[in-house]
Amino acid sequence: MPVVKQEVLALSGDEAVAYAVKQSDVDVVAAYPITPQTIIVERFSEYVHNGEVDTEFVCVESEHSALTACLAASAMGARTFTASASAGLALMHEILYVTSGCRAPVVMAIVNRALSAPINIHCDHADSMVERDASWIQIYVENSQEAYDSVIQAFKIAEHPHILLPAMVMLDAFFLSHTLERVDVLPDDTVRKFVGARKIPLVRSHEGKLVPFKLDPETPVTMGPLDLYDYYFEHKRQQEEAMQRALQKIKQVHDEFGKICGRRYGNGLIDPYRMEDAEIAAICMGSASGTAKVIVDHIRAKGVKAGLLRLRTFRPFPSQDLIKALENVKAIAVMDRSHSFGAHGGPIFHEVRHVLYDAPTHPHVVNYIYGLGGRDMPQTLIHKIYKNLQKIVETKHVETPVQFIGVRE
Amino acid sequence: MTSKQKGWKDIPIAGVCWTPTTEYLTGDWRTYKPVLDLEKCNKCLLCYVYCPDGAIEWKREVQAIEFNYKYCKGCGICAKECRQEAIKMVLE
């Protein structure tokens, strides 16, 4: 299939998300505004007001209610979207687990913002990182174009009858949410056709009949009732199975969409940049990856075999892809834009080092906590990280495995 | 828990019930069981109204209430509400 001709728009990350939702034929949006996600909800409510979409827009009194309304709508078979950030996502915490446990494929955009206190509206990944165990698919984007592409893909991944897990698409506060970028958008009908109608699988009901997996008075089912030591564990095991299946599904949907729009982000799970013969590499998520690519080009020009591995999908964690991509790398710097206080490093560091324990080779892996509360991550600091990696390769010695970079002493 | 219970590959997702909940015999939870003194009972049916589990049945043929011990959890609400003190909670 040839790449579809697209319209070039100047959109902020938030606007790109709203535009993607507008084109994805969403039935219900229930959302509560919070900086820096507000523009998503504002733009979308304008689409509703102008009659550009036939979405039911539910104004709620809190994020807890927003996700509860989405969960209920999704359980009835509706395509459902919400968006939040920081404290708003934290308030949704309880319902995040209920949503995934009810296998309701809600799609949510998270504009990554620091958690209070002290109060801060700027970017770090603490808000979504604490929700990594909630059985939601997590995709972190690098730019506004990818935010647009990923939200469209998220509906198709989450709603697939073999997956049925909710999905979060994360974009960095302000760096992406409030910055105008060139975004190529597909025609409405192309997106609508790509996402398609939500397919509802059949389940065995209490009446012993095979009925659609949705709340419908005509074919009643009970979802998410009391489930004690006799079956709760089995239901959680099913969620893990769906997560593992999602690895393949994310790749497949990313590839199908890539054929239509002509854009690809690695294989959809990891997005390697100049990694082919890399001896040193940084692993990064989100918008800082763009800056890191500039540094890779810069030091490659000086003959250093450096690469960048951008992690696009954090849940499910692409262990095998990561092992394969890093098999010839001698020293790795994992960049975390959040910290697990009291732990040995940040959350991405934990997972990357943990996965490499089973790898045939054992490269040095160090951790840099950076950019908390929107602190800038300039080229000079990323350059310093690659310099340190070069030193580790030369000396075969790691002085400090976990460092905070860009913080004043 | 019995070996008859199904594995995760064989049950519906999301906790969807594939059998009626009446197959779950909550009477197993009971420590005290309600026992009726027919002499004292004036058949007002307050116990029937208050029972949160629908475990008290009106038996038309004998014109008396009967406890369904398959589902009665032994909460004692019926005994508490009975104005005639016709229901006693007895240790199982």
Summarize this entry quickly.
The complex is a heterodimer of chains A (409) and B (92). Chain A is an alpha/beta fold and 409 residues long.
Could you characterize what this model shows?
The complex is a heterodimer of chains A (409) and B (92). Helix content of chain A is 38%, strand content 20%. Chain A is of the alpha/beta class and 409 residues long. Chain A has 2 domains: 7-201 and 225-261, Rossmann fold (3-Layer(aba) Sandwich), CATH 3.40.50; 270-405, Rossmann fold, CATH 3.40.50.920. A 7-stranded mixed beta sheet of chain A has the order 3-2-4-5-7-6-14, sandwiched between helices. A 6-stranded mixed beta sheet of chain A has the order 11-13-12-15-16-17, with helices on both faces. In chain A, helix 3 (63-75) runs parallel beside helix 4. The longest helix of chain A has 30 residues, at 232-261. Chain A starts with 6 loop residues before the first strand and ends with a strand. Chain B has a domain at 32-91: Alpha-Beta Plaits (2-Layer Sandwich), CATH 3.30.70. Helices cover 11% and strands 20% of the residues of chain B. Chain B has helices at 46-50, 77-81, and strands at residues 32-36, 56-59, 64-67, 87-91. In chain B, the strands form 2 sheets. Chain B has a two-stranded antiparallel ribbon. The model of chain B has no long low-confidence stretch (mean pLDDT 94). Classes of the chains: A alpha/beta (409), B alpha+beta (92). The A-B interface holds A 101-103, 164, 203-208, 213, 221-225, 227, 229-231, 233-235, 237-238, 241-242 and B 1, 5-8, 11-21.
